[in-house]
């Protein structure tokens, strides 16, 4: 059965000086988060952006995918700390999300660094959010095994 999630946005005004809000309607986990053009292109000023939400989605998806890869290999993680950094930039074709860079620090008993890096690469490739971004956004991962 397919899982469908819903979010909503409201925008008032022009692009540069306008403002908006987003809400997660399926879960209710977030409501009325402020967004603005400035929060996308300058300092966030306490507001979020579509790119920050993409980064959160990518980090969460990747963490689950890596946990699955490691568990399949018989070495479930004790802890994975994932950071995703999504870049929004002006290109000759206009403003675009150009990259999503993942970094993971993992505590995994019984695993060496090369196998951890290989699992992280497989998770980056297989994660559904990576699949949605692939072909449009440069994806990378840096994996560090910690004791």
Give an overview of the whole structure:
With 147 residues, the chain is α+β, with helices and mostly antiparallel strands. The chain is 33% helix and 35% strand. It has four helices and six strands. The chain has helices spanning 37-41, 50-72, 113-126, 128-133, and strands at 7-12, 19-24, 33-35, 79-91, 94-107, 138-146. It has a three-stranded antiparallel beta sheet with strand order 1-2-3. It has a three-stranded mixed beta sheet with strand order 4-5-6. A hairpin with a 6-residue loop joins β1 and β2 (19-24). The termini are far apart. 24% of the residues are buried. The model has no long low-confidence stretch (mean pLDDT 96).
Quick overview:
This protein is α+β, with helices and mostly antiparallel strands and 147 residues long. The protein contains four helices and six strands, in the order βββααββααβ.
Question: How many helix segments?
Answer: 4
Strand order within the widest beta sheet: 1-2-3
Strand content: 25-35%
| Integer average pLDDT | 96
What are the low-pLDDT stretches, counting only 5+ consecutive residues below 50?
A: none
Overall structural class, as computed from helix and strand content, comes to alpha+beta
- Beta strands, count: 6
Distance between the termini: 39 Å
Largest sheet: 3 strands, antiparallel
User: N-to-C SSE series?
Assistant: EEEHHEEHHE
Alpha-carbon Rg, integer = 17 Å
Q: Judging from the principal axes of the Cα atoms, what is the shape?
A: elongated
What is the helix content?
25-40%
């Amino acid at each position: 059965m397919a899982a469908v999630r819903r979010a909503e946005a409201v925008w008032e005004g022009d692009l540069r000086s306008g403002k908006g809000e987003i809400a997660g309607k399926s879960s209710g986990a977030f409501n009325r988060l402020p967004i603005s053009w400035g929060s996308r292109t300058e300092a966030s000023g306490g507001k979020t952006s579509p790119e920050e939400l993409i980064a959160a989605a990518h980090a969460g998806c990747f963490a689950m995918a890596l946990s699955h890869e490691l568990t399949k290999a018989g070495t479930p993680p004790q802890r994975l700390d994932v950071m995703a950094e999504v870049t929004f930039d002006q290109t000759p074709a206009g403003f675009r999300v150009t990259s999503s860079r993942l970094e993971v620090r993992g505590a995994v008993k019984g695993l060496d660094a090369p196998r951890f890096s290989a699992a992280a690469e497989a998770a980056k490739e297989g994660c559904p959010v990576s699949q949605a971004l692939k072909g449009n956004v440069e994806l990378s991962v840096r994996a560090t095994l910690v004791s």
